[in-house]
Design goal:
heterodimer; A: about 260 residues; alpha/beta; eight-stranded mixed beta sheet; two-stranded antiparallel sheet; 10 helices; about 35% helix; about 20% strand; B: about 260 residues; 12 helices
């Protein structure tokens, strides 16, 4: 009997974990790219943590998980003076591995970590803050050799607030629209000085619309009606349309990120 | 009256807010378009053009620059509008709440969200329409805190995520006491709107997919200017009828009640 599971055996021991944040304005494809990237990396035998940093529902659908509004169990968090939003992990939660142990299993062996969602039932955000502060600390301190793929909220606010601080490479998505390119330029200006990979998303094949707004576009993901149809139904594109061209483009993005990451 | 536009990122909030403001101003209403997204773009869909949109002063940034601190009393919102509002077609005015890229040195805890709440709550709206285009997602809706007298327009593209966020936005708005709620199915069919109405329990209005809007988006232009008779722009004009806007523009000096 082989001791190690296949995932362990296939992994290149020399490979450094990839820590990537996905940012961009609304509707550019952040969740689809994050989820597909996470599952693609996992299928290559890597251990992957997909972090949902958006309090709105989204990433779970694209991963193929049953969406849940649940954040972290109450006993795993404590009020911390000076912690983010005044909260942090409980003393028995290991700072180095807590992000992994508090995550749940998603398809392809991806681990999914979520600070919970604004569920619409209450305007009180204290529950989301309790979990968000803790999740961010755990992601910042994760020291195990796991890949991290984090899906940020649309726009510039949370990147400005340091939500991508853990990242060693950041993907900035823009479509051909003037506004999403402007958002991408604003993001490039305020993000930490780690390698940024600007990706033109939902474009016509070979289109360089994004380039004309002064962005060094390094990769293209084509507009893909099959992905749009999956989104309409709330399904993970990798399950609904595994052969869709946009998904192969995300797989190539994974190669690029592994090359670019320090 | 006050109107907020909310919904998932990329659902079409800013496109709709821009064209809606133009329709209302053209009909003779006094309109204040409040751009609450700290990644402000509303100027573009209002037709100010990219340069004027970027140059528009943002309230929070200007206050920070002037050395205003959170210990100072809140500045008079009407004064802020007079000072930092930018005039556009038909007398409408754009007021930008904050611009994140220039916020160095600002205290995040009193960032653009609380400025949004103060301006949306305190800006006088007698005899005018304050139209607030919110940041993507539910968080900014909670910050804006619309109330009983206000109108909420929740926009979804026909995706499972967009529809779910609108369902939650409607639920939150009802919790806040909002009495007039309209769901909008954007880039969608009448059947999509019917589905959205069934899921949210509020009336839903369809705005069709429109290549003219996509073309304007690509160029950083306002669909209201580039193709005023395109299907989406016309539909946004019809949306006005769903919002309970007074038929005739209110007079400059409304008579006191009673």
């Amino acid at each position: 009997m082989a001791e190690a599971p296949t995932a362990e055996a296939d992994r290149d021991p020399a490979a450094r974990p990839l820590k990537v944040a996905i940012v961009g304005s609304g509707g550019v494809g952040k969740s689809v790219v994050s989820a597909t990237l996470a599952r693609t990396l996992a299928r290559r035998g890597r251990q992957v943590l997909a972090v949902d940093l958006d309090p709105n529902p989204g990433l779970a659908y694209s991963l193929g998980l049953v969406p849940s509004d649940a954040g972290l169990p109450a006993e795993t968090t404590v009020e911390v003076k000076g912690g983010l939003y005044g909260w942090g992990p409980a003393p028995d939660v290991d700072l180095a591995t807590g992000a992994m142990t508090l995550s749940r299993l998603a398809p392809d062996g991806v681990r999914y970590l979520s600070p919970g969602k604004i569920d619409g039932k209450t305007v009180d955000k204290s529950e989301v803050k309790r979990c968000l502060g803790t999740v961010r600390l755990l992601v910042d301190h994760l020291s195990a050799p796991w890949d991290i793929v984090a899906d940020l909220e649309a726009g510039t606010t949370t990147p400005y607030e340091g939500y991508a601080r853990f990242a060693e490479v950041i993907v900035v998505l823009a479509t051909g629209s003037w506004r999403s390119c402007l958002a991408a330029r604003r993001l490039c200006a305020l993000l930490p000085s780690v390698p940024l990979v600007v990706v033109a998303s939902k474009t016509a094949p070979g289109a360089s619309d994004a380039a004309r707004w002064g962005l060094p576009v390094q990769h293209h993901i084509p507009y893909d009606p099959e992905v749009a149809a999956a989104e309409r139904r709330g399904l993970a594109p990798l399950d609904a349309c595994p052969d869709a061209p946009a998904l192969s483009a995300v797989a190539r993005l994974a190669d690029l990120l592994l090359k670019v990451a320090p | 009256m006050k109107i907020v536009i909310t919904g998932k990122g990329g659902a079409g909030k800013t496109t709709i807010a821009g064209a809606l403001a133009r329709h209302l101003a053209h009909a003779g209403h006094s309109v204040v378009a409040l751009d609450c997204d700290p990644n402000p773009m509303l100027g573009i869909t209002l037709g100010f053009g990219p340069e004027r949109t970027e140059a528009a002063p943002a309230v929070l940034n200007m206050l920070v620059e002037m050395g205003h601190t959170h210990n100072d009393p809140d500045p008079d919102p009407e004064g802020l509008l007079d000072q930092f509002g930018v005039e556009g077609p038909d007398g409408l005015r754009l007021l930008t709440v904050g611009r994140v890229e220039q916020l160095e040195g600002a205290c995040v805890c009193c960032g653009s969200h609380s400025t949004t709440r103060k301006l949306f709550s305190n800006l006088p709206h007698e005899g005018r329409i304050v139209l607030a285009d919110l940041e993507a997602g539910l968080n900014d809706l909670i910050w804006a805190h619309p109330g009983r007298q206000d109108v909420v327009v929740a926009v979804a593209e026909p995706s499972a995520k967009g529809v779910e966020i609108v369902r939650r936005a409607c639920q939150l708005s009802e919790t806040l006491g909002v009495s007039r709620l309209v769901a909008v199915a954007n880039r969608a069919s009448a059947a999509d709107a019917g589905n959205l109405s069934r899921i949210t329990g509020v009336p839903a209005f369809a705005i069709p997919e429109d290549p003219a809007v996509a073309a304007a988006d690509r160029d950083g232009a306002a669909p209201y200017d580039t193709d005023p008779s395109s299907p989406a722009v016309l539909a946004i004009g019809e949306l006005v009828g769903w919002l309970g806007v007074p038929k005739r523009p209110a007079t400059e000096h409304p008579l006191p009640a009673g």
